[in-house]
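Q: How would the structure tokens look for this protein?
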Amino acid sequence: MSDYPPLALVTGASRGLGAAIAEHLAARGCHVVAVARTQGALEELDDRIQAAGGATTLAPMDVTKADAMQHLCRGIHDRWGALPLWVHTAVHVPPLSPADMADERDFAKSLATNVTALQRLIPYVSPLLQAAARDRGKARAVFFDDDRPVKFAGAYLATKAAQRALIAAWQAEATTEAAPDVHLMTPRPMPTAVRARFHPGEDRAALSDTRSEAARLMGEIGL
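A: Here is the predicted structure in token form.
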């Protein structure tokens, strides 16, 4: 049996690293369920994947909506029965501001996307990963960290810290044979919209290409 998964869920797949990972997986025969809020960007992703001979199922959904995520996971269960790979790149970056001027609505949106959505998705997706681990002997959940400037990024950094804590707890608890391998990876600096928010005016030519970085990161976990 090939170690390469026949199916992957990529949450936050419309742009940046998420889109690059979706294309990387699809190019290697993996059917990608691509989730993002922006339907137009998902359709552009689908066009690129199909042009390269790959296959996707587009899911234009907001990860912060519980009903949508329940429907998504139930659909994966009903169609495929299991999920060997989940790659989560969905993130919200609020406007930068001093800590003593932080906007409550911006913080709430960051908390909803970066923490609450993940806390909700882990229990939804975990049974699908466990089913794949029992069937194939391995399943993976992949998350990403980053290194951002401290100044003016309090809301983002606070929610990313909470996200890391959730992932670390799942890693420590995933000790049974049916548990997925839980990975927290740190990409090299890339010319993404997220990075541009923190580093305006940066020389983007010196940064790592998202497709090359997707290939490197997936290669580190055997994909």
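Helices lie at 16-27, 39-51, 66-80, 104-136, 154-173, 193-198, 210-220.

Residues 7-220 form a domain with the Rossmann fold fold (CATH 3.40.50.720).

Upvote if useful.
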